Amino acid sequence: MSYNDFNRDGEPRYDHGASGVLGQAANWLRAIVLITATLLVVWALMGRDLITDVQDVVTAVLSSGQPVGVVVPPCVTEYSPGPCYWNAPERGNLTGNSFTVDGVGNVTYWED
Length: 112
Fold this sequence. Notes:
The protein has 1 helix and 3 strands; from the N terminus they run H-E-E-E. By secondary structure, it is mainly alpha-helical.
């Protein structure tokens, strides 16, 4: 033991681990490294198949042409309050713009 291993009263100093701001940063860094390493191991074990499965599902949903998320009913008329949608090629006189009306009355026009 050296002189620096004792406090003013001559008692041995004990290292209680990280303390203060730098100690907290070191603890957070250790936690981040541990979490990252765990995720990399999981990805290495399952990653390729899992990623491929997720991509297949997303591709299937996007290519299905079905709305994604909350499904709203069709509007009874072109001037119905929302929430509803108006598909112009299938409703009314079969011409015009298609749109969705949310529950507050905001209208979003579809791109053709």
